[in-house]
Amino acid sequence: MTDSGHGNLLSVTDLRTYFETEDGTVKAVDGISFELKQGETLGIVGESGSGKSVANLSLMRLIPNPPGKIVSGSIVFAGRDVLKLSPREVRKLRGKRIAMIFQDPMTSLNPFMRVSKQLMEVTRLHLGHTKKQAREHAIKMLEHVGIPDARSRVDSYPHEFSGGMRQRVMIAMALSCRPELLIADEPTTALDVTIQAQILELINSLKAETGASVILITHDLGVVAGMTDHIIVMYAGKVFEQATTTELFERPGNPYTCGLLRSVPDPTDEQGKLYQIPGLPPDLAHLPPGCPFAPRCERAEEICRREFPPYVQLTREHYSLCHFASDVYTKSQAQEGNR
Amino acid sequence: MNAQSLDGAQSQVPPPIAGEAPLIRIKDLKVYFDLGVRREIDQDRRGLGIGVSIIGSFVGRFIIVWLAVVLDVYPVNIWARILFSVIAFGIAFLISSAFALLILGQRIRRVVKAVDGVSLDIRRGETLGLVGESGCGKTTLGRAVLRLTEPTSGQIFFRGTDLAQLSNSVMREQRRHLQIIFQDPYASLNPRMTVSQIIGEPLETFHLARGLAKKKRVQELMEMVGLSARFLKRYPHEFSGGQRQRIGIARALAVDPAFIVADEPISALDVSIQAQIMNLLDRLRRQKNLTYLFISHDLRAIQHVSDRVAVMYLGKIVELADGKSISQNPLMPYTKALISAVPVPDPKIEAKRRRIVLEGDVPSPINTPRGCRFHTRCPYAVEVCSEIEPQLVQIKPNHFAACIRISPAEPDIDRVAPGAAPGLRDHPASARA
Fold it and tell me: Chain B neighbours among A 124-153 (CB < 8 Å)?
């Protein structure tokens, strides 16, 4: 389904990242494929351990080896396969053309270094700025992400900023070199809702301004609903469903996605029993032979426990990994009609 | 806040359901953390302070060098003289700046007002949700109710006795009826104890069961929270987050409590597991007639589980109503902003809706803003907001809010005339600063 090129900034084909552990091989990412066009936002949704973070560390070639290894696949970024580049070339890519924001800004900023120095490091390395240029650029970036009084605060240490402000610093650093691709790994999970709203607005407005593509990784379906064009739902290292955002929320074609959508409390709904997906996420080192979701799935039948499900194409841009994908899809279409 | 306005606040505490006293009644609870005294020269006199230090150090250096000459210890070598002089200057500077701080500085006691005058009734059998941003004092309030953090002042009535007055040993007895579930299920379980030891420990502490009876009870509890009895001999690290939270719940339930503080019980869990734990807590409440104080920053979860929701901001309750009213018809501007910031898992709603994005962060609880604590970030703030501290007033039946810009006659802040503060009439004149 992937043909590289054709206006795609990034196309990932059949990416597999495995970890060798004492328990056996953990298939953290097991054959995911997706494309990302210029200026688009892709959401990757999944619970912890679903492989969403590993997938994105793989994109940046940041998988610690050993124990991790990208076993197969290709990651074509702007026409070149990232997996075939030399470490030197990858380093040039990282931070300059592909930038990343992590969940916890306190652990990703150096606590012993002034913010100014950390921000200047990036542009001096990648854009060849002089010390003075880099400093001016750092101040400009901090102003840009809405840090009040940036000129006097640029020389502060990370601990002198609040959580939301630190995340702004991270965003300023990530955007310093005007990257073409911004990967945001749970950027708002550690923040309060009011601060989350600020950060999401900020990412949106900066995206509109620079035309960058964004990959937004989160476990919060609410966050992706308002931010993304396409969504990938991951479970046990596999892409379970892939669709445009409206399509996924209105006509989900996979029982896992349906379950996730139903288990979020709806403020307009009456109280009562909340839908729950039974059981626990599977152990990635010991996956069942059939569908990894089968033990928790209410739709599961004999075949699900025996055979691995096919990747069914439902519409042009809607895929679902399920034996009964079209059934589920028809049912949610009918439900949507009722609403 | 002075005494008179406190009385005013107390009279406005929601009345209990007819004929039944609340299980827990919190009256004007305050929890302050004293960070100690620090001497500081205030902004206006800082220049004077620096001047005194510099002049002092010149004078001091002169005196030291003069003393050295008189006492005949002044070095002969020119470089040694310069070095001596520099050291003398340094010493003199330290002495004179300490002196300047002593005469010009003021003693400033820095106190964090984590909970600052909360009055609240928790009814028998209800789930009271407590929501707010991090640092607003919601966890401190929860802990203070169980006296895990000692309250500075105020009363906590439980079945007619004031918990705040009890001695430590009597309080420990009372904790049989008052339990807590923590946010991080891993940090709150002893990694060296097996599950059966963890759940059985409170049974022994309170002499409730021993030997075979204890074993039976532990199995019963594990079944109740949906854990297989096979797991009895396992250690906490062998469980997933959701299962660990179940162990924590089983331990809290072991002593048959009447009241449980659930402090962010689902925040560390995955979405699909959050629903499981919420359902479990709800089922247990019905089965065992429990009362919960459910603390969370997740508004969606809190609306779902709670009968009533209290919104907290910088140590104070700013709005209190049933879950539905809070989510669909919030009155106080802070609650409005909070509700509007919650992302909804529906792209259609997300595309249409207007978010109220608040400026800035929560102010430091060390120097809380004067007047309404929210006025520094409030889009509706008028000048009086920085002068008068609003009280929790009943705006609609069973819907309380602390905002002077609304009143029972004009509950919708968007329709109130610009600059008007109709709620001002309800405030005693003494509350004016």
Answer: 148
| Dist CA B107 CA B101 (whole Å) | 10
Is B300 near chain A, with CB under 8 Å? yes
Interface contact flag, B343 A222, Cβ < 8 Å: yes
Task: Give the pLDDT confidence of B265-323 residue by residue, as tens digits.
Answer: 888 788 888 888 898 999 999 998 999 999 998 888 888 889 999 999 989 999 999 98
Q: Do residue B352 and residue B413 come from a single domain?
A: yes
CA dihedral sign of residues A29, A33, A39, A44 = negative
Prediction ipTM score: 0.77
Note the pLDDT tens digit of each residue in B351-370: 777 777 777 777 777 778 88
Last-in-domain residue among B289, B322, B355: B322
- Residue B389: the pLDDT is 87
Give the phi and the psi of residue B350 in degrees, each rounded to 5: -60, -40
Same domain, B185 and B64: no
CB < 8 Å from B in window 238-297 of A: 245-246, 249, 259-261, 263-268, 271, 273-278, 280-281
Look at chain B and report how many structural domains it folds into. 3
Residue B178 pLDDT more than 90? yes
Strands in A238-244's sheet, in edge-to-edge order, are A98-101, A181-185, A213-218, A41-45, A230-235, A238-244, A318-321, A311-315
Same domain, B154 and B295: yes
